[in-house]
Amino acid sequence: MASQRSDDLRIVNWNIERRKPSSWQARSLVDEIASLEPDYVCLTEAWKQSLADFGGHAISAEGAAWSPQHPDERKVVLWSRNPWADVEPIEQLEAIGSAITAKSEINGNVVRFVGVCIPYHFASPLGVEPRAKPWTEHERFLETLKPLLARWARDEPVIVLGDFNRRVPRSWGPKRSYEKLEDTFSGYQFATTGILDEINDRTIDHVAFAGSFEVKRVYGKSAHLPDGRRRSDHFGVVAEIA
After folding, report:
1. For the chain, is the Cβ count within 10 Å smaller at the N or the C terminus?
2. CA 193, CA 172: separation in Å to the nearest integer?
3. In a domain? residue 2
């Protein structure tokens, strides 16, 4: 990989649909991510070993189980070129969806990163009956995350990335739960709103931030290979931020 750029950060965010590291899908996705020469990567619905051959520094969070899963599966994997500091899985969010936070030094400034996997609308804890009603776990996660985001933003710049399971601005789903998303991220800016370049589609995998950042470019990367084979049920998101 090339050395880190002095100003712009290239961030890649991709849900890889639980693909095993040995699968052709995962190998193809990781190879493409490496070719983008990112400074930071967030994988959701990944595996502990997904970026084992990537170099750099990876941390991960297991998260809540909504269906049977392998012990090595991880809802969130965060990767950085540089070592992480103050790594902390967020237990109260791990019980609902998944979240992990850590700090990284960027050009002499300490920035907090938060990787999240916010529950999808039908998410329900595995083995718990009756099943959770649609959107309730999603909303509970947002309500729990809100005070944490507010506190972190008072202390230092923050970048939040991962699978939000909502498009921004809202295009479907209850207005109430979308208003909770807006309320939770009050004071934060989304880099990944609307139609993304190169993919001509809207994403549910976002990059949001609080602090003195400037969005330079945001674009998507196809979930399919040129021959039509599908690697994931999500396309990738690349955000370049100064």
Report:
1. C
2. 14
3. no
